[in-house]
Amino acid sequence: MKEITIIRLSSLGDIAMLVPVLLSFHSSYPKHTVRLITRTRFAPIFNDLHFVSIIPIDNGNSRLNFLQLIHFAIQLSLSKPTFLLDLHDVLRTKLIRLICRLNGSKVYVFDKGRAEKKALIATHGDKSKWLKTTFQRYTDVFEKAGFPFELGLHFLNKVPNDSGKTRIGISPFAKHSSKEYSLVKMKEIILKLSSHKDFELMIFGFGDREDCIASGMADGIPNIKNIIGKMSFSEELSLISGLDIMISMDSGNGHLAANYNIPVITLWGTTHPKLGFGPYCQPLSHSIFPDEKAFPMLPVSVFGPCSIDGYMRAIDSIFVENVYRKVLEIIK
Prior knowledge:
Helices cover 34% and strands 15% of the residues. It is an alpha/beta fold.
């Protein structure tokens, strides 16, 4: 039995994308274990992966300062991890892997494909070129370390939906506003869906701002719940696992739902799944894009920030009716 140590500190979406990779790894190497260095708040994502143990890098859910980070790296190096896979490649992880390498660890690093992604953005919407997915890039690091495997159809176990209603998750928020659909139009979608009495809607998000907005969107609608801030992350994941469908932006909740093999409708703005960040094993038909004729240069951003005039709100060119019909199509 061998133990693999992995570093991936953020963000929610990138952390969630580790799940199918680790499940595929475990399928090929069932006797091996994984130590995952990440933030405490992400630990519940891996609760059902018995072969994964979490090493929290934060202190009371806040980032370590420089001296604390040095101490953490030294302590980790003293545990002498044989294989250290850096699946993040930022300054903090570079420091950790340097100290571990000095103490004899074999270190392997994630290739973000920065140049490829920048080049694809520069082509202004090259329709023929799709880059390697983040899932495959993670898998490549394992192969460099001597653990090759194929990504498979491995998912987390769902919680059965015995409510008698179709449960629809709605995740209308994103880190960058250019990836966030018009909240007015999202309310229109909610109203259309709520007219189906056999539908039960749930709004997901994080933080006070999103909670306040979601409360306003749900106000007066009997078959919708604002989940934000109402339960622990573990309880929220359990709720997501019982959904029949998730409507999401290019954001973390879509990836969380995909890990349970739940159909995810993704609304794209300035970004695009051809850059490698689409939810796991979701067909392209589940993606809804802005008007190609009005925005021929898409994608114009890797992560969301956009400096091209007129493209910041490209996502709002998506028709409400198209999203509504896609939900009905998938449910049927």
